[in-house]
Amino acid sequence: MDHAADAHRTDLMTITRFVLNEQSKHPESRGDFTILLSHIVLGCKFVCTAVNKAGLAKLIGLAGETNVQGEEQKKLDVLSNEVFVKALVSSGRTSILVSEEDEEATFVEASKRGRYCVVFDPLDGSSNIDCGVSIGTIFGIYMLKDTNDPKLEEVLQPGKNMLAAGYCMYGSSCTLVLSTGSGVNGFTLDPSLGEFILTHPDIKIPKKGKIYSVNEGNAKNWDEPTSKYVEKCKFPKDGSSPKSLRYIGSMVADVHRTLLYGGIFLYPGDKKSPNGKLRVLYEVFPMSFLMEQAGGQAFTGKERALDLIPTKIHQRSPIFLGSYDDVEEIKALYAAAAEKTA
Ligand code: AHM
Ligand code: MG
């Protein structure tokens, strides 16, 4: 056994230690957030294990079929939703849950209620499961005003009111990226310990990037500012090099790369889908929160993304997020277009 290596491991910063440290800066806190987060972390570990086994689905039975025990196999996204709903309810710290998988919000029964509302996409990018591409869980957390009388309005709030946001990426490693409103930190699951370890402290997105990320198959229906922007990425007129295109089609993976390497991720509205595809509460807001906390920007084509006030829980919005300077350019193009039509 390598005792020297083990000795190094005693000062590992696990996610629980990290959040406890953060909480100790707020003497009034009662440890509720740490408990809530530990339940989210448990959900992520569970889904990570299930995703890793997905490639063996042929051996253990495909979704919709029955397995050897005669139980019906659940699709991974359905399973992930159940995992998170159960983990969040049993934390005793939540009152309202909004999941991409559930049409209606879940109101937690009175005996298990707590101070938080969690909005989440349990398994985003699930169309990528069968080919083993990275997928992820996205979440945002709001604090309730009144635990005795939770109302849907508590989650129909602008993203800037979120207390915390994060995602977990199930890729070549399992990475959890979290912000509690004072910077962004990344943790990687150490499978031998079963713990998320701080591997990416205080993530800052480069001020300008060399990558743009968008589904160009929709270009035919784009509006003028988006078309002009992408044209500029490919044929810059200021003597700079063209940007590279990277598009995985899995928001967590595309945003994770953007956060670490810089650049811009776009899911614009278009003639067919004026509000784009991505959902405000559990896709656009958490990712915009993280981007801003890392020094980047997030814009809807009209306003700062985190200022948007949603009126429906599954509402969609166009989104442009990433490096500060890159988002500044697309903002300028939308401002110019708005001026022309004014
Ligand atoms: P989903 O919530 O149904 O999985 O869809 C969301 C995903 C995102 O992960 C990704 O950014 C986007 O859809 C890709 O969409 P498209 O295939 O239209 O490019
Ligand atoms: Mg999704």
UniProtKB/TrEMBL annotation:
Alphabetically ordered keywords of this record: Carbohydrate metabolism, Cytoplasm, Hydrolase, Magnesium, Metal-binding
EC numbers for this chain: 3.1.3.11
Main location class: cytoplasm
GO BP term, pick one: fructose 6-phosphate metabolic process
UniProt KW Cytoplasm keyword: yes
InterPro entries given in the database record: FBPase_C_dom, FBPase_class-1, FBPase_N, FBPtase, Fructose_bisphosphatase_AS
Any one annotated GO CC term: cytosol
Cellular localisation: Cytoplasm
SUPFAM superfamilies with a match to the protein in the record: Carbohydrate phosphatase
Enzyme class: hydrolase
Domain Fructose-1-6-bisphosphatase class I N-terminal, first and last residues per copy: 13-201
Catalysed reaction, written as an equation: beta-D-fructose 1,6-bisphosphate + H2O = beta-D-fructose 6-phosphate + phosphate
Cofactor: Mg(2+)
Domain of life: Eukaryota
Residue span(s) of domain Fructose-1-6-bisphosphatase class 1 C-terminal: 205-334
Family note: Belongs to the FBPase class 1 family.
Name by which UniProt lists this protein: Fructose-1,6-bisphosphatase, cytosolic
